[in-house]
Amino acid sequence: MASRSLGGLSGSRGSGGAGKKSLSARNAAVERRNLITVCRFSVKTLIDRSCFETIDDSSPEFNNFAAILEQILSHRLKGQVTWFGYESPRSFWDYIRVACRKVSQNCICSIENMENVSSSRAKGRAWIRVALMEKHLSEYISTALRDFKTTRRFYEDGAIVLGEEANMLAGMLLGLNAIDFSFCLKGQGLDGNFPAVIDYTPYLKFTQSSDSISSDEEELRTLGSSGSSGSSTPEKVGPPFIMDENSWFNKCKRVRHKYQLTLEQKGYLEELLRLRENELSKSVSQNKLLLQRIEDSELAHKLEKEQLEYIIVELQDQLKSYHSLDQLSAEVSLSQTSLDPAQSQEGEGKQDPLNLINEGKEDTPSLLGLCGSLTSVASYKSLTSLKSNDYLASPTTEMTSPGLTPS
């Protein structure tokens, strides 16, 4: 009996341990699913709010989203083991700083060098704001999750970033790239002394708006279908609404008013589109004319360039021909001088009479210079043209009668 009781006790203990493990696994799965679902709701609320006002630090939708994202990135984060074996808590910024180094033009270094941000938690909150303003938050998360080795080193088993929910996280954050955020990195939101608190009230209370066309049942069904794949909502959440004729009439009136506004906006957009198309056609025609003018000018410049090149070639040929003619004339003159020495003497004689005349004039005004000039070959040739005149005597007569004086 004792052995049976001990065996039963040991069996109950074993079943209790397995039950605790299954319960903890279920609680972890529910926690992960709830955080992802609430994150999806917060992103949707943030996008809807951005259509009416600018999102900044004072927006409660953003503060709730930042708290949810901080909780997701801090879920089952390992502590840092010191030299003495103690484990100190760590912020998700330590993981982001290492895992997001591969992002091109990242803001890690600029956040590390910020003067007014000292704690690790405050740097992580500043990183969320800077990444949203840069529209790169989804890229940072995707790059960090792809580095599975680093993620495994920083997180324990059962963390959101290690599960299947991590693939949904980057896709949800992609819609935030369409929002223009404006944050001040010196505000109270960066205070790292206080943990982030999530406000679940906006996601648990659904009220029927007076301007809403769809009913609460349809909204609940839509939100339930946008939840996780494992969760399912019943087809009928509650009893159907009983509406009278006045309520239906008011709803039809609101629908008709919205339809008229939409129709007017459609007409305005069509007119604006027509004007833009006309402007585009005019600009296209002007562009064609400019392109044609450019082509004509390029063709004219090309022809002018070819003509100038042809003229340059002709001038170069003429210059070469002139050089060859000068060379040829020099060679001909040298050859004539070498073949006819009498001509060279005659050429020298053409210069000698002038020199003799000049010398005679300088020495004495007698007839010796004239006689010398008459005895030269050039003077003799000039006398042959004057044979018809008998006024000049022969050179021999002038040489033999020194008493003659010039008249």
What is the residue-averaged pLDDT? 75
What composes the largest sheet? Answer: 2 strands, antiparallel
Q: Provide the succession of SSEs.
A: HHEEHHHHHHHHHHHHH
The total count of strands amounts to 2
Helix share bin: 55-70%
Give the percentage of residues in beta strands.
Answer: under 5%
Number of helices: 15
Question: What is the end-to-end distance?
Answer: 188 Å
Shape: elongated
Structural Rg: 56 Å
Structural class: mainly alpha
Poorly predicted sequence stretches spanning 5 or more consecutive residues: 1-12, 226-241, 347-407
| Largest beta sheet: strand ordering | 1-2
Describe the structure.
The protein is mainly alpha-helical and 407 residues long. It has helices spanning 2-50, 60-73, 92-99, 108-112, 120-134, 137-146, 148-154, 165-173, 201-204, 216-225, 245-339, 341-363, 368-375, 377-384, 395-400; strands at residues 80-81, 87-88. A hairpin with a 5-residue loop joins strand 1 and strand 2 (87-88). The protein is elongated.
